[in-house]
Amino acid sequence: MKKTSVVRGAVSSPYVVWTALFIIAPLLFVVWFAFTDAGGAFTFDNIKGLSTYGQNFLMSIGFSLIATAVCFIIGYPLAWCIARSSRRARAFLTVLIMLPMWTSLLVRTYALMALLDNGGIVNNVLSNMGFLGERHLNIIGSEGAVILGMIYDFLPYMVLPVYTSMIKLDMRYVEAAADLGASGTRTMFSVILPLTKPGIISGLTMVFVPSISTFYISQKLGGGSFDLIGDTIERQFQNAVTYNTGAAISLVMMILILISLGIMNHFTDEKEVVVR
Known about the structure:
The longest helix is centred in the first third of the chain and has 33 residues. Helix content is 74%, strand content 0%. With 276 residues, it is mostly helical. Helix 3 crosses helix 7, helix 8 packs antiparallel against helix 9 and helix 10 runs antiparallel to helix 13.
């Protein structure tokens, strides 16, 4: 028994060291800088000054909620179609969903810029079809372009967890609901949605968390017209004088992310699902 414990400790030690160096230590540094000034003295001024960035927080949360909601509206039916396909079709469609994730987010964002730019493919196609005339759509630099970028980049994070829950769904529940006279809508809301709730919560969290902290998407697709909270954090850490302010903002973001993860863990506990 003792030998097994020693072997287990030896095997797990690299992961413990990795966690301590690259997860716990950076978080402690963020907390330290958040509650100290440039001279290292303890202060709450960094936290008190966050009210200046209230609009950035609200805009980031609003954009993230919209992107998450749209990803759910698109992703849930898409995951259902994939789950109900044949085995060969499921494998092919799953690869198509995962394929964009194999490409860097930077490359995908630049590709979207090429599509949406004033001289991009979308404007050229619409102009050639006679819809725009001499005008063009000013998509880049708008709030809609940033939200579209979030949806485009993070949609797979919604589809895959929901698909995983749906593929495990016992279709006998759906058949029983139909035998009892439940309509398709009633079956969806009373049977399928409750049974796939862990995948839904996981997908919502996996889209919301990176959306609220993103900065590259807003910089490229927003055209510098506005700042999300991720842009603000990046700008603060580019100047050694404002490290402490950036750390304070990052600390608030960490708390929001931890709350989101806590909600996800609460709803994805292994519990018996009651179908009504």
